[in-house]
Amino acid sequence: MDFRAGDSWGIFAFLCAALWNLPAVPALNSTDEAGAGQSIQKTYDLTRYLEHQLRTLAGTYLNYLGPPFNEPDFNPPRMTRAEMVPSATVDFELWRSLNDNARLAANYRAYTHLLCYLRGMDGQVAKADLRKSLGHFCSSLQGLVVSIAGVMSSLGYPLPGSLGSTDPAWAHGLGPVSPHNDFLKKMDDFWLLKELQTWLWRSAKDFNRLKKKVPPAAVTLSLEAQGF
Amino acid sequence: SPSPVVRGYCVCAVAVTCDLARRFVQYERIGADVTMKCGAMDWDAAVTWTVNGSDIDESHLNGSYLVLRNVHLGHSGQYSCYEGSSWHLKYQTFLKVGTPPKEPVLMCRSNNYPKRFYCSWHLPSPTYVPNTFNISVIHGTREMVCEKEAVPKNRCHIRYLQLFSTVKYKVTLTVTNALGRNSTTITFDEFAIVKPDPPENVVAKPVPYSPRRLEVRWNNPSSWPDPESFPLKFFLRYRPLILDQWQHVELSDGTSHTITDAYAGKEYIIQVAAKDNDIGTWSDWSVAVHATPWTEEPKYLTTEAQAPETTTSSTSSFVPPPTTKICDQEKVVGSGAVAVAVSWAAGLVLAAAGVLFI
Predict the structure, then answer these.
(1) DSSP helix, strand, coil percent of chain B (3-state; round to 5)
(2) Is B241 within 8 Å of B267 (Cβ atoms)?
(3) Which chain B residue has the Cα nearest residue A195?
(4) Count of the separate structural domains present in chain B
(5) Interface contacts (A, B; CB < 8 Å)
(6) What is the ipTM of this complex?
(7) Which of A50, A75, A90 to mutate to test the interface with B (most CBs of B within 10 A)?
(8) Least confident of A168-177, A211-220, B82-91, B120-129
(9) Contact B166 A88 (CB under 8 A)
(10) What are the structural domains of chain A?
């Protein structure tokens, strides 16, 4: 499959840049702990919805890639290219000890990256109905990114990073595979979907933790912000 | 008097690794032909063979060799060879007849996610000889140690070092015995094997003055380490004993539920299952509990024409009381009358639904 360096490339690079510079969602009233709690619940629900959507989408997409990608026991070693995709895998103790800010930031960064890569994948799919499904999914995923940003703002946390060392390597043009390396490209797609699925599972757990902890934290933060 | 050879056998009898024992324990496959030599005795020497103390008929001998054809489990035992005249023990062995291992059955599961997961195994059929099991767990490039448990013996556990892994686990179990070996391998994702234990302390109680309600309470399984970050959701099923069709309720919050559509006066059987909110599979059903909704004590049996609700015929147990009785009841039991009328109507609906499902 040819990777066109022209129009679609330009578009998604622009999109990636745009996403990174998302305007901050106006912070809710800092004492509005109920608001933060609701946003977290909404974000949690979004991750569940996306996870269900992804199951169908991934099944279709892997069939489109064909064997061995659609085989249930397919268990390839992780290739270095795939390391550009942010991994949900984390040391157990480290994950438990993440503070709320770090936990949210990790989710935000991950989905922003993943969304970028997904949009890149979208541009090259030959089948129209699959492209449409991918497009829908990307919109939903963007909704999740915005939702996470909303939670962070309502809790007074700054949105992580802008374009710089953390931006997706593809935006710098390191990404494109030569048209002859079709298998490697499919492998990238496989790992992207897998990592996305794992992130959605992880986010459900992340937001569970946040759900329990946020109301008191929101009060503390608002007090700190007001100089108490 | 027993020779030192015999004592040596008693000490090392079944240990496979004991070198002495190799001379004293012999493993053979079912169906094999076994020839035993009487130690260093010549072929034409006069000997007597015994098995478990009983003499063996000469027809099984080929000179001084003992020949057992097409051995089966009944041939297992202690074989001894004595020199003809002196009755000196010249050779002794314990024969164990068995089979090489069939492919073992292996499964892994996490009932205490995200702490650990365990793998357990068994052989589909016995080998009748001692087996050793060796398990290897590979996660990506890393080999993990599966810590064996004392009880049960065929189980080991692994601590999760990382969570939310995209790389599958590959577990291989090898079974070896003196007659052969076999192995099996399974691969799985971290999330796929999460299956909690069933909920505990399930209790169902009637609700006073509510003839159609049952209050059910339960606890999280005690093996689930962190219900705060990894909440469980529950599935409750209930039916009156006299019906086969279960009703189901899925609950994403809390460890209690009130059934509000129970049939008045009927004994119910209730079970609960648990699942991590987001991943894995449902637990087995909890122990079943029984409960009957509250009913008013029949105080006016002699003055009222109403007969007690019939439960004797199981297929037609929803015989509606005649309408006159409902009117009579209204004087006595306010909501109860409604309950009876409703239960009758519900019974019809259920019967209709039951027909649809057949």
Answers:
(1) 15, 40, 45
(2) yes
(3) B166
(4) 3
(5) 63
(6) 0.74
(7) A75
(8) A168-177
(9) yes
(10) 33-165+177-214 (1.20.1250.10)
